Amino acid sequence: MIPDSFPVDLISWDRATSLSRSLAAMIRASRFQPDIVIAIGRGGYVPARIVCDRLLMNDLTSIKIEHWGTAAHKLDQARVRFPLSVNVEGKDILVIDDITDTGETLMAAREYLALTKPGEIRTGVLQHKTSSAYQPDYYAELISDWKWIVYPWALHEDMIGFLEKVLSTRPASVGDLTEALRLRFMMSPDMDEVVLALNDMVSLDTAARQGDLYYALGRTKHP
Fold it and tell me: In CATH, what number is assigned to the domain containing residue 170?
């Protein structure tokens, strides 16, 4: 079970790109030559495209497997929501995702793809947590101390999820909420990102604004 407070690592675009290129270099060095790359949606879309670029591969497709919601909200089990749309029988497959946390997403992917009668299946991720029950064939970085990773392609929705955890019915400033995120999740987000997320929460009717202050919509609003 994920605790109420835990460290969060905000990955920049530069770092995500660097990790993706390192992953591609490892795959190239192994001399594995897949026929097709399959991205795990949604986290694997960007890394898979960068890997394809570095490996000079044209054939890229995807499947969507749902296991995590926003802000470390875990679903009951990994499930394939959007299946494979091409025939991969007899083809060597490279599956790319952003991270292995529990490992259940890639285990579900391997189990599903095995039913399509491919050749060899190999898997790669940007970051592999030692807490994962599944070890991918390739990973650019090993994470020994558990933390929640936020990639730049999921920053906005995760920011909303984390703000929902710190926002209360008592109005608070952007600075106060940013500090609450730092104290509870050891994260230091850009204040503009916090404002953007808060304004979308207001638009979604999950929060309200009172001047320069924001509060969660609940039964009681403090003056």
Answer: 1.10.10.10
Spatial CB neighbours of 140, under 8 Å, sequence gap ≥ 6 = 19, 20, 22, 23, 26, 125, 126, 127
Is 107 found in the same domain as 167? no
Token pair 């890997």 in the structure block, residue: 51
pLDDT, tens digit only, all 223 positions of the chain: 566 899 999 999 999 999 999 999 999 999 999 999 999 999 999 999 999 999 999 999 999 987 654 544 455 667 787 889 899 999 999 999 999 999 999 999 999 999 999 999 999 999 999 999 999 999 999 999 999 999 999 999 999 999 999 999 999 999 999 999 999 999 999 999 999 999 999 999 999 999 999 999 964 444 4
Residues 121, 95, single domain; the answer is yes
Burial (Cβ within 10 Å: 0-12, 13-18, ≥19) of residue 26: middle
Domains contained in the chain, number: 2
